Amino acid sequence: MSEPSAEQQEREEALVERVLTSFAGTPDPRTKELVEALTRHLHAFVRETRLTEAEWKRGIDFLTAVGHITDDRRQEFILLSDVLGVSMQTITVDNQAYANATEATVFGPFFVEGSPDVGLGGDVAGGARGEPCWVSGTVTDTDGSPVAGALVEVWEADADGQYDVQYGDDRVAGRGHLHTDDGGRYRFWAVTPTPYPIPDDGPVGELLRATGRSPMRASHLHLMVRAEGYRTLVTHVFPRGDAYLDSDSVFGVRDSLVVDVHQQIPTTPTPDGRDVAGPWARIDFDVVLAPAGHR
Ligand code: BEZ
Ligand code: FE
To answer: Which of 8, 26, 92, 148 gives the lowest tally of CB atoms within 10 Å of its CB?
Structure first.
């Protein structure tokens, strides 16, 4: 496509300036900065792609469909932000690298407040289908001192790739919380994570299909760790060797979060003496918290 003429470029730039000027009186400086940057970037997108009116209408129709499918249980806008990598970019910007602090990743739509307190060594599976998996580690600060009493929230999909909130009944499974002991240690039973697709029966799924992308998430276990005086950490543990580590649909994988899953044969004694009928697995994962007040 040929370059627009000088006169055409002048007209386009004048419009950008007029819109920017319209926001000049925004009282809150941060709001002003955000609406001005949004204006600049949106106009640059339209001008760079030489967007047609029909294409803009298609875009508006798409966003309208995203709105229509969104309700209390389904947030298609977050899903859109996730598959565009915008959620992960925001997390990256807002949780900057701090010493050896554990990296953050996407929150996702399946966390539910008020999970059961399973206690140290308890079972977060709660009947979820899957191979039993013993998960243990420590929570420390960046100097290696234990963080006692840290809240560890865990949630995960079952072996069929379903979270309990997708079961269609009121069962609570694959979620729970516990607190670290005086040595900052935590441990619990869960199920070995398996891959699953993000909800793809809506406009975001349509976008993925139109662009030849897979809806699959790399296998993972969600962890959120909170303690007074520390930056809250929302992260995942990803089993090494998973088929989707390089193509996670929401760009959530960080190399530092990929861990070995140690498979155990059925006769191997469990760490807490629990009687496990078949094979089981174990994952060790140490969490390091950044101090509060650091982005
Ligand atoms: C999840 O891991 O639960 C998730 C994250 C982003 C989009 C959909 C699901
Ligand atoms: Fe998940």
So the answer is: 8
